[in-house]
Design brief:
The strands form 4 sheets. A 4-stranded antiparallel sheet has the order 4-5-1-6, with helices on both faces. The chain is built from 11 helices and 10 strands. The longest helix has 19 residues. Helix 8 packs parallel to helix 9. It is 43% helix and 13% strand. Strand 9 and strand 10 form a beta hairpin. With 346 residues, it is α+β, with helices and mostly antiparallel strands. The relative contact order is 0.10. The protein starts with a helix and ends in a 9-residue tail after the last helix. Keywords: Coiled coil, Phosphoprotein.
Length: 346
């Protein structure tokens, strides 16, 4: 952000590219990583330590009670460990040298890489330079077993003035990358005017969402509390499983990651309002559309207050357990009041 503001103060427009890597930590090739360590002067006992850290493990797939044959992994570093981000940065070190060779500035944080070119008010040849850089980056990543996603790679043109300019396109791997008006960088929403209005609005909406969640009263009605809060939560979870059984792309195991794609919300609501939309046409990768459809349908047909913000749900890599639980409670309560859920009388 500071670099972009400084460039704008100097009267320069900027091109900012946000690279997207697919499952980056899982594709680190052990052989290539060890060679990179050797290239940095690591050898002897220390190199053997790293080799030991990466080897001696096995992985398998467990599905429906059946286990696959264990195999030793040849790629990937354990996520969550202190050492893994360091190893990933070492693996990516040569990429920085390649980017600097094109006189392109960059910032790297773990698997997030941003490329940045400030240019005089007229964009001149900056887009073509950036396209050349992106192509070399793509080739380097392919050779190093990293997968760059053109579909999810975003870029912004940040003008120094409000004068309308023709914005060229960037090209990567033969695919044209259209510019976007806003993007999310490490959780911060950035717009082409650098106004921070989107970020402030998101924080404000999040704060109001927490206030509304705090105002939601009590657990779902008519669910017996004899076992305490955990029993109520478990019973509500079992109810969700029962209502969504048989729906594709839905496997409710908790009140967090099981709801990440939005499909669980859609399935639960479709169970009671099957004519509201065609569930078979939904795509689990279209998270924003799924959340929007589910929340708006629940509000329209069940009078269920929209306690969750769609943008907040999309931004969260791991949905908040309490938020999901409170919304499902509210949905259950609304369905009971509509007479769509029958409960046992006390």
């Amino acid at each position: 952000m500071d670099d972009l503001w400084r460039a704008q103060d100097r009267g320069c427009s900027s091109i900012l590219v946000l690279l997207d890597l697919l499952v980056a930590f899982n594709t680190i090739d052990h052989g290539i990583l060890l060679r990179h360590l050797q290239g940095l002067g690591v050898g002897g006992t220390v190199l053997r330590w790293f080799s030991s850290y990466l080897s001696g493990c096995a992985q398998l797939v467990l599905a429906r009670g059946q286990r696959s044959t264990p195999r030793p992994p040849t790629c990937g570093v354990p996520q969550g460990s202190v050492l893994s981000p360091l190893l990933f940065n070492i693996y990516m070190k040569l990429l920085g040298e390649i980017i600097r060779g094109f006189r392109v500035r960059y910032h790297q944080y773990a698997d997030d890489t941003q490329l940045f070119i400030p240019t005089p008010d007229h964009l001149s040849d900056a887009p073509s330079m950036m396209s050349c850089c992106l192509e070399v980056v793509r080739i380097w990543m392919g050779r190093n077993r990293l997968q760059l996603s053109p579909d999810k790679t975003e870029w912004l043109c940040l003008p120094a003035s409000r004068i309308v300019q023709e914005i060229p396109s960037l090209v990567m791997g033969g695919e044209v990358l259209p510019p976007v008006d806003r993007a999310c960088i490490l959780g911060v929403l950035l717009d082409i005017q650098l106004s921070m209005e989107e970020q402030v609005g998101a924080i404000t909406r999040g704060a109001f969402a927490q206030v509304r969640l705090g105002a939601a009263t009590g657990p779902a009605p008519n669910i017996k509390r004899t076992g305490g809060a955990n029993t109520v939560k478990t019973m509500l979870l079992e109810w969700c499983r029962a209502m969504t059984r048989g729906y594709e792309h839905v496997d409710i195991q908790n009140f967090s990651t099981s709801w990440k794609s939005g499909m669980a919300f859609c399935a639960l609501i479709h169970k009671f309002f099957p004519d509201a939309f065609d569930y078979a046409n939904l795509d689990p990768t279209n998270r924003k559309d799924n959340f929007t459809l589910a929340f708006s349908t629940a509000e329209k047909y069940a009078d269920c207050a929209q306690l969750l913000e769609v943008d907040d749900m999309v931004r969260m890599s791991v949905p908040d357990n309490k938020c999901i639980y409170t919304y499902v409670q509210e949905l259950y309560r609304s369905l009971v009041e509509k007479g769509l859920v029958k409960t046992k009388k006390k």
